[in-house]
Amino acid sequence: MDNIPATKPAPRWTVIQSLVCLTAAIGFAFDTYELLMLPLIAPGAIREFTGAAPGTPIFQNWIAALFFVPAVFGAIFGLLGGWLTDRLGRRRVLTGSILLYAGAAFISGYSTSMTMLLICRCFVFVGVCVEFVAAVAWLAELFDDPKQRERVIGYTQAFASLGGLMVAFVNHEFAALSQKGSLPMIVMPDWAAQLIGPLENPDVVWRYTLMSGLFPAIPLILVRPFLPESPKWAEKKKAGLLKRPSLLELFTPALRRTTVVSTLLVGCSYGMAFGGLQQFTQIVRGLPEVEEKVKDLPPPKAGAVRQVEAAKVSEFQEVGGLAGRFLLAFLAMRIAGRRKLLAMFLVPALFFLPSIFWTFSQGQNVHYFSLGGRVDVNLLSLLAFAAGAMVIGQMSFWGNYLPRVFPLHLRGTGESMAANIGGRLIGTSFAWVTAVLAKQAWIPGAAGYSKIAFSAACVTGGLALVGCILTFFLPEPPPEDVSEAH
């Protein structure tokens, strides 16, 4: 196994470095928290506002809109946010992005229509897209020791999967409290009701889940006065040596291959997550075992039961994602070749992911999985865990790779091009692709959930194949960060 070259012992952390890492970890965790709550809350919201069931055309149209429209806004304004990160500094942009998505998430809990929910999700997505770029650039410039930097970026990104576990747990608890009748109703303030309309018989589970996205703003307000700017960025800014960032510079001969290949590969990684992993909760909601549980229940109770089942699936998948992120952080310290490191996640995904979703598409031959279930049920739970590890581990790879291949004055802009145009725009659009495929008459499957599963199998298999091919063209980063002389 290739090892990263040895360096002198890493210096001890300072209090300021610890605060920066804490802030970035909170940001990473709630980035994922905000994004992964969508498959948990969307079915309940669509049922409340439209009455549509999973697999129906109206339902699939709104699912596609909720996944894709915010992604377009996030990609465009996220690219602008990356440019602002290079112009205004890492700290200021990071703080503003977290406050933006936390506030928008809370307000979305008071949505009175699908249109209002969609608009709020656009603001949430913009904040999330900008936060990732600013946080990674900040961390990359805070530590001079290469091994320490790799370790910090790798393990702080693992908190992103913790965010997925948190939202699954929170949603599960809200659903359980709702089943017991212990969850208070949401009351719209009079002034807000006059502005956007009253709430009529609201489903409180998905609304409370959305409102919980306000949490990251609280610790941020407490630590913000103690956070420094990136020392390397601030030093060059003060000395007048910081070049003006330019989007066009990403496509000069020196950076063109890096920009194009990394953008497409990030798109493949995100595409497997949004077009595949995030479809699990929809698939489970429509399984015969779940439908049997809710057939005699009134709509609010039936929705709560579906939420519980979906949250269980999300929890198990996110544990796998957390394992994948820790595995990436561990391997990044021991494998020098970045192509080889990425291939260790992509190649298994090429064979494994399509098989998982194809199994779910077989209708009555598949049993819903849960702990303590039958033998085939336990097998499926293990497969979902492994799928999360293969795909989510790739997300951490890009957080480690991108800061090393773009110069300091273009670091935020370059990361934003790959992460937001590649990941948030191209990658998330595969949720829409899966939804559109599932509506086609030629897709096999008698039920809506089996069509979604078959479509996800096609999408994940195709993306993994393209990713494996593109890996051969991915530039290896230099031994140290790219300098201004790049």
Structural overview:
The chain is mostly helical. It is 73% helix and 0% strand. Helix 3 packs parallel to helix 5 (114-142), helix 6 packs antiparallel against helix 14 (299-332) and helix 14 crosses helix 16. The longest helix has 35 residues, at 146-180.
Keywords:
486 residues, mainly alpha, disordered C terminus
Write the layout of secondary structure elements.
Elements: H1 15-36, H2 38-50, H3 57-88, H4 90-108, H5 114-142, H6 146-180, H7 190-196, H8 204-211, H9 217-223, H10 231-239, H11 256-275, H12 280-285, H13 288-294, H14 299-332, H15 338-360, H16 375-405, H17 411-427, H18 429-438, H19 448-471
Helix pairs in contact: 1-5, 1-6, 2-3, 2-8, 3-4, 3-5, 3-17, 3-18, 4-5, 5-6, 5-17, 6-8, 6-14, 6-16, 11-16, 11-17, 11-18, 11-19, 14-16, 15-16, 15-19, 16-17, 18-19
Summary?
This protein is an all-alpha fold. The protein contains 19 helices and no strands. The chain is globular.
User: What's the count of strands?
Assistant: 0
Low-confidence stretches: 364-378, 481-486
The number of helical elements comes to 19
| Average residue-wise pLDDT | 81
In whole angstroms, the N-to-C terminal distance is: 29 Å
